[in-house]
Amino acid sequence: MFDSITGSIRNVVSKIRHQDDNAALKKAVTELKKSLLKADIHHKTAKELVTNIELETKKNGIGQDSFLNALKQELTTVLTANGNQGFVFSSTPPTTILMTGLQGSGKTTTTGKLANYLKLRKKKVLVAAADLQRLAAVEQLKQIAAQIDVDIYFDDNETDPVKIAIAAQEKAKKELYDVLLIDTAGRLAIDEELMLQLENIKNSVKPDEIFYVADSLTGHDATKTATTFKEKIGIDGVILSKYDGDTKGGVALSISHQVGVPLRFIGIGEKMPDLEVFIPDRIVSRLLGLGDIEGLAEKTSAIIDEKKAKQVAKKIKKGQFNFNDFLDQLQMMSKLGSMKSIIGMIPGLSQMAGPIKDMDFENSDEIKRIKAIIGSMTPKEREDPDLMNPSRKRRIAMGSGVSEVQINKILKQFKNASKMAKKLSSKGGMKGLQDMMSQLKGGGMPGGMGGLPR
Ligand SMILES: Nc1nc2c(ncn2[C@@H]2O[C@H](COP(=O)(O)OP(=O)(O)O)[C@@H](O)[C@H]2O)c(=O)[nH]1
Ligand SMILES: [Mg+2]
Q1: Which of 109, 185, 212, 223 could join 133 via S-S bond, C-beta 3.0 to 4.6 A?
Q2: Confidence (pLDDT) at 340
Q3: What is the three-class DSSP state of 93?
Q4: How far is the CA of 102 from the centre of ligand 2 (A)?
């Protein structure tokens, strides 16, 4: 996610030697500044950052360690604007969040992603369709809500978004929802009418927080429009959407420093799991190539059912891992989002991950094929992989529309996967995982629990 910035930082750090002189340090920070600017970090932020890093490094004696420490400290400072981090619940539920932003910035999608994020953390969430501007807006939110199985408030006969917001809040209070997310209308550019409408909604429902969804592909404009929204209606946080398409990536590092409100989440894809909470310490760790184990643990613990995971682990050890378990694993992986979003969180992995980066657990054709195949098996076959024989395979091929050759290939992959999972569970932990990943990288091998062929 921060690949290119992490790369340039690593490059600069590697050039600093123990007991280097001022000139060498100067050269390093100049190079750092250049790459930060190239990544679209705001020039004021870049300047402040390198000035402070230079000062701080000198204070502690020039060397790689002191440079790294200064880098860590100053990056954290720049990323930490005053205000809340992540999602904060009000002491008097429902926590009401107003979602704002320009048209097309990703408000509706992000409303769904946030609802999904909260639902996975066992919260009762209501979303409200208060964008009555665009014809299809309500329908879009309905579809998203159905997809993630979250309740929605809408009223096809109402034309006033303020009334929708008020009625949604009443419902949320009465029916004891933990969180209410209100999706609002955007415009192509900031205009008075839009601001007035948001102001009216704000005054009527008194949201706990107002989030501004900024499209990271608009580069420096994202910072500018967020500032205007802050001045006009007051915002408590920024969510940066479409970060997956942003090859430069620097906006994420300077937006909170420039706007003066924290960056709370980043959107890293079109699908519902593609949302990352933005916690400065963790991001700095990733920027320095040190991974984010804490973030990974948080993410997986919300998704992976621990009891089930233990059962599966037991089965694997006993060699009883079957197709039902395999399907379960696949489904769990699809909730985690793309592999890309996970890799940067594991120390050292982003450098060696190569081909598995683009793995997509939800949509790849391979996974669809696997699901079709398992869907065409009888319950007995799913329980007992050893039952497979040529005539059963022929029947499954007919049922699933997948060729026998491919079925053979996938069965072999399944065998490898359970073998590797067995190895992994006996080795345990990080070492096993890294072995698995390097094997994946090296031979294009399928495998691991839910680790899949490309
Ligand atoms: N790749 C990518 N696309 C996104 C992301 N967030 C939103 N989008 C897409 O951006 C487009 C506009 O999103 P939408 O939620 O309708 O914007 P709204 O007008 O602000 O409500 C849609 O096609 C979304 O799928 C993201 O984080 N990554
Ligand atoms: Mg919308």
Answers
A1: 185
A2: 67
A3: coil
A4: 9
Atom of ligand 1 lying closest to residue 102 CA: 20
Q: Which domains does the chain have, with CATH numbers?
A: 3-79 (1.20.120.140), 95-288 (3.40.50.300), 297-443 (1.10.260.30)
Report the pocket of ligand 1 as residue ranges, CB < 6 Å: 101, 103-109, 186, 241-242, 244-245, 267-270, 274
Q: Is 319 exposed, middle or buried (0-12, 13-18, 19+ CB in 10 A)?
A: exposed
How does DSSP assign 177-218, residue by residue? -SEEEEEE---SS--HHHHHHHHHHHHHH--SEEEEEEEGGG
- Count CB-CB contacts under 10 A for residue 86: 13
The span from the CA of 385 to the CA of 117, in Å, is 35
Q: Is the pLDDT of residue 425 over 50?
A: yes
257-299: pLDDT as tens digits: 999 999 999 999 999 999 999 999 888 988 887 777 777 777 7
Task: Please give the Cα distance from 412 to 437 (Å, whole number).
Answer: 18
Q: Which ligand is nearest to the CA of 271?
A: 1
Mean pLDDT, rounded, of the chain? 85
Q: Report CA(218)–ligand 2 centroid distance (Å).
A: 17
Amino acid at site 76: T
The answer to whether residues 163 and 156 touch, using CB atoms and an 8 Å cutoff, is: no
Q: Any idea which ligand is nearest the CA of 187?
A: 1
Q: Ligand 1 centroid vs 328 CA: distance in angstroms?
A: 29
pLDDT of res. 448: 35
pLDDT in tens, 364-387: 677 778 888 998 999 999 988 889
Alpha-helical runs (H) found in 357-403? 365-375, 379-383, 390-400
**Nearest ligand by distance to the CA of 112:** 1
- Contact yes or no for 154/129 (Cβ under 8 A): yes
Indicate which atom in ligand 1 lies nearest the CA of residue 103.
Answer: 19
Give pLDDT, residue 362.
59
DSSP 267: E
The confidence score (pLDDT) of residue 350 equals 58
pLDDT in tens, 159-214: 999 999 999 999 999 999 999 999 999 877 778 888 899 999 999 999 999 999 99
Answer yes or no: are the C-beta atoms of 81 and 259 closer than 8 Å.
yes
| Tokens matching residue 387 | 């039952």
